[in-house]
Batch of 2 targets.
Target 1
Amino acid sequence: MEAMIESFSGIPAGANQSPHTLTIRFDAEVDRVVIIDQTRLPHECVEVELKTSADACHAISSMQVRGAPLIGVTAAFGVYLGLRGKDDETARSLSASVIEALAATRPTAINLRWALDKIETRLARCEKNLAEIALQAALELHAEDINACAMLGEYGAQRLQEIWEAKGERAAQAGLPAPESLNVLTHCNAGALATVDWGTALAVIYKAQARAIPLHVWVDETRPRNQGASLTCWELGQRGVPHTLIVDNAGGHLMQHGLIDCCVVGSDRTTLLGDVCNKIGTYLKALAAADNGIPFYVALPVSSIDFSLREGLTEIPIEERAAEEVSHISGLDDEGRVSRVQLAPTGTAVSNYGFDVTPARLVSGLITERGIIDADEAALTKLRDSIA
Amino acid sequence: MEAMIESFSGIPAGANQSPHTLTIRFDAEVDRVVIIDQTRLPHECVEVELKTSADACHAISSMQVRGAPLIGVTAAFGVYLGLRGKDDETARSLSASVIEALAATRPTAINLRWALDKIETRLARCEKNLAEIALQAALELHAEDINACAMLGEYGAQRLQEIWEAKGERAAQAGLPAPESLNVLTHCNAGALATVDWGTALAVIYKAQARAIPLHVWVDETRPRNQGASLTCWELGQRGVPHTLIVDNAGGHLMQHGLIDCCVVGSDRTTLLGDVCNKIGTYLKALAAADNGIPFYVALPVSSIDFSLREGLTEIPIEERAAEEVSHISGLDDEGRVSRVQLAPTGTAVSNYGFDVTPARLVSGLITERGIIDADEAALTKLRDSIA
């Protein structure tokens, strides 16, 4: 069941909802959970229905949906789909295995576990209407995610505005012309497509765009799955944000030459000490930012902080993915069809870690829906205690 | 004019020549200059003849040949091809424009200018037989390159042996089992395919292999042109060196987890202060090596040092290449044909710098045919004065 989306503006804007198709949505009138199949972007924008809990598992593990916040919300709807149409006794006996299967789809993003724990707690407290309760919980997570992203975007945009104003002042003091743009580098896709709406790193961009800061975004292509080239470029193009695609190797050179003013990335899991686990390669950009005195911000909803862990490097499980993601790549061929080509010699051994950990010492600040905080134990402990 | 090479072992081994087809060779009996067309590797190994100086220009600019040392030698043969069959008066009047066209093919590698200067000087000193003199100079450069690479390989292998022995001692002191392998990361292709034979960084590997050090090489795929995935993996496979392909994003993570013992890369141009210009992304790996206390060596023939420059970051011209190298990629399709696919949304703006500069402070040493020297002004001045 799929439908081509003709334009990326199907849904009326709510309070915090941007005027674009949501990455995942529930159509209450016909009881359908619908996602954008991100494996087909940027060449096709296709919506598919998730009909079963197994569909939700497949969507997460095959990366039709990806991004820590979106994985969490999708898993929540997956619980509902697993219990839908079952009587309460059956639903009760099924719920543990449904949740277990969803939890096993991907190991690194903490939101997955966080969302499932929330639903599990809710189900444990209730006697009846379990499917309805799971749906209600999923819808709440869905709404909360939109609001959290919109809010952290505002905090981040305020910081970008300060950086932009400081850049203008430096130019004026040096007797140089006013700068043309604020150049922000991002890695992977921490955009609307990684959440329900707005995104995390890109929420900061979109909210800064709304303040009329003249932005230009450097987009890391983000091998091996090229979420930067395929998803971030597409999303920024849809929303009219000027951007330039670069290979992952290029960011250091651009920073050395003053072509990047700030880095903003997302996070799949952040620890109590402020270590940030994000898409493989993030650490290299953080090193280059530190070496060149460039602010390096991480934008994340509080739901992606794992307060139970301290050291990111030793404690966060890093997903290893299939060799084919490195040895082969998909794109649009000369006849306009999506096809796959082999890059390396046949039989070449491949290693494919999905994430790395950026130590807190390299992070300028964590942009959350509760404000921008330092990436250190004191600030994170305070945040943890404030929401306990 | 091309010929499929059936095996990679056509030519008898000379003193310093490895038992493999040379990347560029002159067949004196039939007066032919022949190269391996590297744009068709790893899926096909094809030799093509360079018949004219324009063929040599095309081979360099289209990257049928690439790698600083090989570019220099190819340009030298290009001068010969431009003068071949001409009487001396015509050859004299042509030589400046032939050299100028070859010099303009690529801006970053200094060997190109260095080789052409050598020939130009030689031609200026002679009255007659200019074509013959150009050929003789090219053949000398060809032989010198093989010898330089073999020698720097020996120096580097000695250093790897020391690192390997130290690794064993550390394990023994910690009561751990003896290590299984010495893990070396390399970026791009600084192999036999980047030179006439042996390579620079990979000469170190091959000479270490000959010492029976149990090596394992992590190969950065090296976007955008994937010289690591396509050339280094192919070359290491041909020579039986265990290796694993990774995306450029992965090296930092591997270093954080103790999976890399040493980095060895090549250089397109090195300055008097020891700054190293090499394939884009090298700087990011050097930062990660420094952050994790891992030695970072650069292997290079003295011909690639530009003693006339001091600061790499401000003085070395960095080539910008076509957007299509980033937005599109070639590989083997399902039917076994080499075909190209588009990765980014149509019309996406792309930036494509070919090289970056690693500051001397991040370089553990320069491995040259004259020994391993510090990457600093004192050592490089001494080297310069010793060869003046």
Target 2
Amino acid sequence: MLPTITWDNDRVILIDQRLLPAEEVYLECLDHIQVAEAIEQMAIRGAPAIGVAAAYGVALGVQKMEESGDWDGEFDRILTRLENTRPTARNLFWALERMKQTFDNHKHLALLQLKETMIQKAISIDKEDVDTNKKIGYWGRELIQDGQNILTHCNAGALATAGYGTALGVIRAAFEQGKKIRVFADETRPLLQGARLTCWELNKDDVPVVLITDNMAGHLMKKGQISAVITGADRIAQNGDTANKIGTYSVAVLAKEHGLPFYVAAPLNTIDFSLTDGDAIPIEERNQEEVKQLAGQCITVPDIEIHNPAFDVTPAKYITAIITEKGIAKPPFELNLASFKD
Amino acid sequence: MLPTITWDNDRVILIDQRLLPAEEVYLECLDHIQVAEAIEQMAIRGAPAIGVAAAYGVALGVQKMEESGDWDGEFDRILTRLENTRPTARNLFWALERMKQTFDNHKHLALLQLKETMIQKAISIDKEDVDTNKKIGYWGRELIQDGQNILTHCNAGALATAGYGTALGVIRAAFEQGKKIRVFADETRPLLQGARLTCWELNKDDVPVVLITDNMAGHLMKKGQISAVITGADRIAQNGDTANKIGTYSVAVLAKEHGLPFYVAAPLNTIDFSLTDGDAIPIEERNQEEVKQLAGQCITVPDIEIHNPAFDVTPAKYITAIITEKGIAKPPFELNLASFKD
């Protein structure tokens, strides 16, 4: 099996996450438009993976530039197309900013050299993401005790990143230490990333995993069957307010009600230091068909009205700790996240 | 369209709720075994509807009795078969007790007369259920204000009862008063009673309804888009602890966290006065395939471990009021529910 994202000379190869676990199909993207479409259609998803894919998308776009072209104008169009794919994940914009900085710093070079520099930058963002996740795992594993049952929501695993995962990176690291843990995976409607991706990943790695529907978590907590919750993040504000897959907020409220720790695992590039709190995080409303259909079949009255917010914001007061590659931040997050800033 | 359950001479006709809303198919049950299977397989579901169906099942069973047979032995076998269908809904056992009492009081009669008496008793349980729901609606509608958005979980509607519904009965009664309300329906995994049945029923009656996945309720509450929650019940203990469809407890915790009223609408025969609290309510664990499959399609890794509790228990402290046919009970429920007892 290939990693989630692979750079292969003149193209980006992505595992098509819409088809997992039934089929293992790889998509080849030959230009930035194909990468943008793969992000929009969620063939690739997960905030860090979106960032890495977008970086490669920029690199692909630059490869099409011609000596006589309007480089700046073309670069802006590439950036705009990729920026407009999905609004919530901070990592997307972070990666695009890094690629723009690299472009601006090297656009005085010969075109061939500029092209190679952009590729190398995207590869470094990719590699850095895996290293970051290993560090998140290293710090986070100390929060997990032998014998615990860990609830996770959506997929913040190898598939959501360049590899290893954030929330699942912590789980992997604890498991690799020999801790006997058991993961409860929320199926995560509407797109079932928990049922399809988290179960698939953990099962492959022999980490014990139990699948539940999203509405079972509260019941299991009340029965004492959950020890802690850990999720990823799509964007974190200065104060720790965290946007993540729809349903995360409900799980956080339930964890608080049952006195359970609620951890967020995310790289520092998920943090949006320009936002004082989570109120300004844009929440993507996705296509109603995602809710209306399950496995391609209409599950309700065809013309029913539907809400489909893809994310929610968990206020910092529900979060026990945020696990980053530089260490674990506890409240007050304003202070403790800022101390990790470059 | 026929009602949820119809007695037609020598058979019981049930709308097959597994196929709604795609297909409107009616099942004919000719004996108590077929009724028991329809209950087990959830062709008919919803606590009050299960009670009514079971009463008709007993009546059907008695029709097969012969002059020379062991009436008491046969009756016990009929009762046992129906008792063993599903463990949680109180209404099932209540209806079977009523049918047994009727049998015991009339078994000195001629067989033909006994058979007719059993049919008439089942019909009266059926009719009584609709009257009860109208009364629940009458009392409950005062709790709903013009312009409110009401969240409901699962289906406690006409389909879950002999007609009109409990939670949806209250919604119907408020709507019939001219109150401009809007219903948010949790889809209710795994069997999607919200998406399939609640949306179908309310849509038919022109009550505005918006479908959401179960994990969106918290987000909508935080955004101020929900005014109150109302659900049905499968069994209520003396102290008000309420077993209902899995996920109800999570919604109740979320309602409390957001300062929203959480109402339970149920007939008095849902109350189990023999239980001091909800800890002793048996929670049915159903087949893993319900979570794993949708319309024959596997949505996860085929050999994954799955939990599938069909119900959870919401402790009384999360419940604002219980709406019954005799009026609205507020805490302390021990006292106020007991005052409604016959």
